[in-house]
Amino acid sequence: MRKLFAACSIAIAALATAPASAETVVVTADRLVDVLAGRTVERPVVVITDGRIVSVVGEGAARPVIPEGATRIDLPGKTLLPGLIDMHVHLDSNPRYGGYTRLRFTDHFWTAQGVANARAMLEAGFTTIRNVGSRDFSDVGIKEAIEEGIIEGPRIVPAGHSLGATGGHCDNNLLPPSYQATRGGVADGPQALRSRAREQRKYGAEVIKACATGGVFSRNTGVGQQQLTLEELSAIVAEARQLGMTTAAHAHGTEGIKAAIEAGFTTIEHASFLDDEAIRMAIRRGTFLSMDIYNTEYTLAEGERNNVLPENLEKERQVGTRQRESFRRSVELGARHVFGSDAGVYPHGTGGRQFARMVQFGMTPMQAIQAATANAAEALARTADLGAIAPGRFGDMIAVDGDPLRDISLLESVPVVIKGGRLVVDRR
Ligand SMILES: [Zn+2]
């Protein structure tokens, strides 16, 4: 046994020191968006070895030494950007099945749906997604299947079940009492919610999501009404921190938003009814806003056909316009944003449309791109791996025709996606 172990150690050491066995990929393009410096680099050469970026140089700098046998991906006429990160995704969801129509399907239907949706997200240029709430850890299962190479999809940061109060937005309120339907993350009181957070971690969650207020698509919840107390929210954050996890709070109403910021959540999801005080609190605490300002267009246009309940459509009408005003004001005051789209409320793979809305409502194109890259990586506490085309990070990048800083709508259709140095989408 000891001999075998020794032999293995030697083999591993040999692998680590022999560059001949390393797999190198070289990517060139017309320009590159450096999201960390907030500028573009002309004629970039990016070298990726074994999935991680080892060097990035631009015009005028000494060209790197390319090892023999390296794979080349030359993208003339194109701009390279870091792989996009969507911080608010529900993989196991399909907007076409609104209201009670989703009850037609067996439970595992939704995991199968998630497999297709993961592929659609990657095809759209999202090389990482944060899945903020799933049924029965389907997000963890899909992540494992992607990592095993069984299916294709983005890197996934899963939440498992969303935590929330009895009868709150993250409970199942569709069925009468005799069905005894309760979602897996539901609990009341600080200690019970801490237990729920521990359970999510136990089964593979990497972020804790909690529903601080009511929401648009739940039944019998006021969209703005606070549903977890400050004490409960603080307990959730304390537990997540103890476990080394980041946190996301679903919060539409002003009081719930403020309570979630005060409790120390990493990101506030939706953040629809912001006032200046809430925005300033977020800035002071370093809280990121994750505002899904595209999907209202889809819900209002298609909701009725998708059998969304009238009560839910009415709530969307209350929220949509107000949320965009809040977004504009938060950008004006200098709040920090991540890109969160609520994919699943609208069809996965069309989320790139949100970039143009972020610019329409006050951001520069660079700010919108940073929200989906550098800022998102920071909010995931993953700046060593994600969010920029920079040495040490994963070789995750996309390429678009022309210059997205002039025309942000180029991000609505991404022809080239590279994940870990591997060309996973090629529609050149
Ligand atoms: Zn959501």
Provide keyphrases for this structure:
single chain, 428 residues, alpha/beta, Urease, subunit C, domain 1, TIM Barrel, 8-stranded mixed β-sheet, 5-stranded parallel β-sheet, disordered N terminus, binds zinc ion
SSE blueprint and pairings:
Elements: H1 2-17, E1 24-34, E2 39-42, E3 45-49, E4 52-57, E5 71-82, E6 84-89, H2 109-123, E7 126-131, H3 138-147, E8 155-158, H4 190-202, E9 207-211, H5 230-242, E10 246-251, H6 254-263, E11 267-270, H7 276-285, E12 288-290, H8 295-302, H9 310-333, E13 337-338, H10 353-360, H11 365-371, H12 374-379, E14 397-401, E15 416-419, E16 422-426
Parallel strand pairs: 1-5, 6-7, 7-8, 9-10, 10-11, 11-12, 12-13
Antiparallel strand pairs: 1-2, 1-3, 3-4, 5-14, 14-15, 15-16
Bound molecules: zinc ion.
Residues 88, 90, 132, 342 line the site of zinc ion (ZN).
